[in-house]
Amino acid sequence: MKPRGDMTTTSPAAGILFAVDIEADAFARLAADHREIHAAGFLFHEGTVGGRRVAWCVGGIGTAAATRAARLLVAGHRPQLLVSAGFAGGLDPALARGAVVRPTRVILAGAPATALALTSPSAAPALTICTAERIVRTPAEKRDLAIRTGAAVVDMESFAVAAVAREADVPCAGVRIISDAAGDELPPVVAGLTQAQSPLRRLGAALGAVGRRPRTAVELWRLWEHAVLDGRTLASALAALCADLPVAP
Questions:
Q1: Which CATH superfamily is domain 14-186+233-244 in?
Q2: Is residue 41 within 8 Å of residue 2, measured between CB atoms?
């Protein structure tokens, strides 16, 4: 970690954790006074969104990556609120692709549920998000997970972010956009692309999948187009959340 002087000297209203760049790109474009800070192998960002000073980081996919990034974000920036943000899979058929959800609790198999903060009186009613250790790809897998857990949404990071927030005695909120609905099936290559690996290896895996199954190229392009749109919707939802927050001291 770089010396404390290289980090922010005031507490931002929120510290936001994304898993991948495309989740964060549109949000970063909304930020005024944007600056970047390299620390402990991560790139942290600070800026003003919705009239509030915020910090954010792209921490990586999965609970281990999210835990490490969240701890560094809390230690270096001391946010008043920690936010797990990004794409998620729908388990409830009533949730359409592109819908924004603010979960009220998060669960992980074998661990007690953790309550999440609602930052606006207009936020949606009670909704549970389940953090999974692998991607939940098919409608059958989503249906089974919904039955076993009672969750309406699934991701791979929120429980870890909430656990770090609990350790630090900081409230935690979730903002997720449904990138694939309960009835949608993700192409098989997506499961491999979510594994921890270098960008070069991830590109190699994608190219290999295209070579074995040319239709994969069309599927990946469609996913990319959806992701760009979803990133913009997510950015708007996060800007609204930031605007609702009290001004940090």
A1: Nucleoside phosphorylase domain (3.40.50.1580)
A2: no
